[in-house]
């Protein structure tokens, strides 16, 4: 039986949404040397997608991204950054929309809102995946972390969106590091290097890494870490100040 | 007398354009120690604005940005980069649209397309302003370079768009340097430093600048420049390879 209250606003016959604009969120999860990405699987379809959706008529894009991420995955208070707007005319296809709606017991009229051309504004975030509990929404079977090295085929241009987000994450890592809030208030150079190596997907030379990080002017050196072995104890660091918002 | 062929498509009663999406271009001009920005002045209004416009139904955003920049300023073959999508609900106002249309002899119906909510995708470019000849379109009085330190009040959120573009230009300078194509095939470290100082709007310490540029791994050192004074001749450099497209 249809339960209309479980349908997203976008499946209503005349949804009260901004025409032509959607938002897609690439949520990277980091923990203990692993980099993952958060994907939804649409109910009864085996179709994987980024958490995304449409924009309300009185809502800016940042607000829309935060709202729909929470609606679709239950992740709240995530530091989302806009990174690129995707607009190729061939990026979506009507058949996929029909498959997803039908599998959840809904038929969409041929002239339905959802078959319009949409451009999609991409947002990304990097979170410690051990600290959040993703929960699928009513039209999804699952909401799970997938290893970055084995991302399945996604609907539409979502694999392209993931790749662009990953390029952006890696490119922006120095300047976003503090904002991502992934490290404890004080940390060792080794902990910082492990985070970089996981996200960049490669090993780094310790001396070069340390020289580069210190040259960025974002770290303050504190006392040595209390380990019991005083001579070998590593220095602790903290961030000097918030990063730029760019 | 109205000359409808001079009106932009967006002023037609039912324009064949994508609803809700516009594009605005921030064109930075660099030459001989000066950094400028290209602005249009709408006919008979004294209102300054970025060159921008609307997106055709079968056009992606990159194509739209290139097309409208050429339509509105006569600048062609410019390397435009998308940088941010602007979406606050209060970013435009109807009265400004009416003023601009009326001053060009056009009345827009109350429910006209142009009064819808629009989000705008920002593009930027950096060009040598001595090599191009900006030409205003039919609905503008002028299309001129304005010094970055004395930008007039612009319509809508265009001053905010300029500031975000300038932040992006400065942040991305290292990685976009070759793509901007502002330097001759070979150049001295001094010429490169002058370009940086102009765009960053501050003096740089020569030794630090040289060390940083060489550490980026994008420059190849060539022979010394022929100046007649062999001992003081500076080295010439060229770019090793194209920059990343991010």
**Could you name the CATH topology of the largest domain in chain A?**
Nucleoside Triphosphate Pyrophosphohydrolase
Give the terminus-to-terminus CA distance of chain A.
Answer: 48 Å
| Radius of gyration of chain A, in angstroms, nearest whole number | 21 Å
Summarize model confidence as the mean pLDDT of chain A.
92
Question: What class, by secondary structure content of chain A?
Answer: alpha+beta
> How many beta-strand elements of chain A?
10
Oligomer: homodimer
Q: What count of domains describes the coordinates of chain A?
A: 2
Helix content of chain A: 25-40%
Question: Could you explain how this protein is built, in words?
Answer:
Two copies of one chain form a homodimer. By secondary structure, chain A is an alpha+beta fold. Chain A folds into two domains: 9-178, Nucleoside Triphosphate Pyrophosphohydrolase; 184-239, Arc Repressor Mutant, subunit A (Orthogonal Bundle). Helices cover 28% and strands 28% of the residues of chain A. The first copy, chain A, contains five helices and ten strands. Chain A has helices at 61-73, 94-103, 158-180, 189-200, 206-215; strands at 17-31, 34-42, 48-49, 52-56, 81-86, 119-128, 140-147, 187-188, 219-224, 235-239. In chain A, strands 1, 2, 3, 4, 5, 6 and 7 form a seven-stranded mixed beta sheet that branches. A three-stranded antiparallel beta sheet of chain A has the order 8-10-9. In chain A, strand 1 and strand 2 form a beta hairpin. The A-B interface holds A 18-21, 55, 57-62, 82, 84-85, 87-89, 117, 119, 121, 167-168, 171, 175, 244, 246 and B 18-21, 55, 57-62, 82, 84-85, 87-89, 117, 119, 121, 167-168, 171, 175, 244, 246.
């Amino acid at each position: 039986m249809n339960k209309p209250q479980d349908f997203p606003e976008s499946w209503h016959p005349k949804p009260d949404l901004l025409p032509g604009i959607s938002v897609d969120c690439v949520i990277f999860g980091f923990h203990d040397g692993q980099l993952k990405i958060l994907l939804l699987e649409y109910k009864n379809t085996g179709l994987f997608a980024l958490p995304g959706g449409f924009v309300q008529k009185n809502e800016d894009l940042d607000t829309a991204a935060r709202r729909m991420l929470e609606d679709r995955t239950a992740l709240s208070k995530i530091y989302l950054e806009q990174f690129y707007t995707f607009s190729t005319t061939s990026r979506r296809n009507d058949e996929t929309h029909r498959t997803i709606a039908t599998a959840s017991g809904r038929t969409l009229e041929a002239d339905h809102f959802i078959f319009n051309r949409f451009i999609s504004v991409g947002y990304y975030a990097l979170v410690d995946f051990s600290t959040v509990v993703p929960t699928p929404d009513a039209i999804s079977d699952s909401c799970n972390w997938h290893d970055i090295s084995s991302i399945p085929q996604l609907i539409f241009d979502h694999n392209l969106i993931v790749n662009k987000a990953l390029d952006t994450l890696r490119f922006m890592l120095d300047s976003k590091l503090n904002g991502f809030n992934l490290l404890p208030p004080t940390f060792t150079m080794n902990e910082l290097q492990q985070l970089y190596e996981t996200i960049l997907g490669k090993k780094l030379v310790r001396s070069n890494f340390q020289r580069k990080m210190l040259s960025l002017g974002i770290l303050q050196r504190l006392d040595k870490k209390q380990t019991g072995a005083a001579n070998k104890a590593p220095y602790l660091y903290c961030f000097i100040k918030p990063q730029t918002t760019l």
